[in-house]
Amino acid sequence: MKRGIRKVVIAGGGTAGWVAACALTHQFRELLEVTLVESEQIGTVGVGESTIPTIRTFHRLLGIDEREFMSSVAASFKLSISFENWLRPGQRYFHPFGLTGLGSWACEFHHFWLDSLRRGMTSELGDYCLETVASRVDRFSLPGHQVGGAQQWSTRWGNQAMAPERLEVNYAYHFDAGLYAAYMRERAERQGLVRVEGKIRQVRQHPETGYVEALVLEDGTVLEGDLFIDCTGGRAVLSEQALGTGYEDWNHWLPSNRAVALQTEADGPAVPYTRAIAHEAGWHWKIALQHRIGCGIVFSDAHMSDDEATAKLLAENPARPLRDPWIIPFRTGRRRKAWNKNVVALGLASGFIEPLESTSIHLTLSGVARLLKLFPAEGIDESMVQRYNDISRAEMEHVRDFIILHYHLNQRDEPMWQQVRHMDLPDDLAHRIGMFRDRAHASQGEDELFRLDSWTHCMLGQGVVPKAHHPLTRALPDDAMQRLFDGIRKPIERAVAAMPSHQQFLDSYCKAPPSAWELMYERARAHARVTGKVAGVGGGLAT
């Protein structure tokens, strides 16, 4: 007989634990009894600083006010990712979050752009994307929000050869993961969540079914539950140590397996994009928050040592450090079942895909949202568990393939880059690259995270030169082609010219009080006093 779910126990805090707690208490309120257990003595990775636009949808689900949230977590805006030196040293392109140009139902815009190059017209694909153009000059604004005497920028494209579209900005956030977890914790506790301080000593399971029945803490406290959420990071105390779920390793496709992270004082105005800078054995991230810079080196320990990575990081980030660099080992792959018996793994407990495209926090939010949709209030059904696991697997494999693309498509000379350039690819990724190389065809599945525009910008940015493109583009005369392009590009240029700088907009819209910054530093100092080492206060490597 199935057992209804009335008590949910979340093992572990950080970003994953507190996001799950906030969502469950917000959606189910008095229908569920939600308890979270965590220990201040157990450090978390604490590098989560960069997100993708899906976080805004999740926040709307929870009724989060954007300006209050951004001020509380010292957030900045993110329009894109700047990929530097990935194809070869000295080359740069943006992966923007917004739409690019206007196409037809049969033929996307990049086909028209490719045909314009054939005709001798010169431009860059990014010229037709608001987010790319604004990123180039470090500008940002939202319709309806002016800074000082700045001109209100238009919210429409204007007259074009094709149907008009709204000129809206699509963006995500950079924020401090420790402040984000604290923000979610405050909301969850206000909504009725019970937090218990302590370390898990034993996972008590049913002798026949293997279902988890309770967590026993070191002080003898017993936390019984019907459903357990494992947010214990890479240790996966419930999913792996207790249930032996198994792990699928992807290191043969994604060789980076370590990172060294650093936080420094701000070295200038905040830019509205994440920088991902390739180096000889991996890549270097740099993320501007309101109060500091988050930076780090991701690398393969087969091609670079910890000491070499740390020295490189410090040399390339000369601003005053706010704490010592720290090493983060990781293992790219996924838990073979995200949901096993009555345990759902979230965050690092469910697996990890290296942080290149800022997907770690998204995957946590997606897992929480999926659990809400399939929540087993009347008892766990294996059909729903399988559905959850199938979607989770497909989502992670899709993200994995998109990140492999950046590594594989390179023209660099170093050993690691040669290794990934010549490796065998997952079948679906090989097919996608082949379609784009043959006919400039990019595809997007109904439930896939990365849109067609994302694949297009990254394929072109990583040096894929299509042999041909859609023949429909040849039917458009030169003058009509030019009107189409001008009708897209010029409104974007006017809109960006009317925007304030990103830093000016932040200061006007959501400036964080000094108390928010001090909260993060005090939490780090308190953890150091307890454990004797400096550790993060966030919830996952998620740049």
Automatic annotation (TrEMBL):
Residue ranges crossing the lipid bilayer per the database entry: none
Record SUPFAM superfamilies: FAD/NAD(P)-binding domain
Domain of life: Bacteria
InterPro entries in alphabetical order: FAD/NAD-bd_sf, Flavin-dep_Halogenase_NPB, Flavin_halogenase, Trp_halogen
Gene3D superfamilies, per database record: FAD/NAD(P)-binding domain
Name of the protein described by the UniProt record: Tryptophan 7-halogenase
Organism: Luteimonas rhizosphaericola
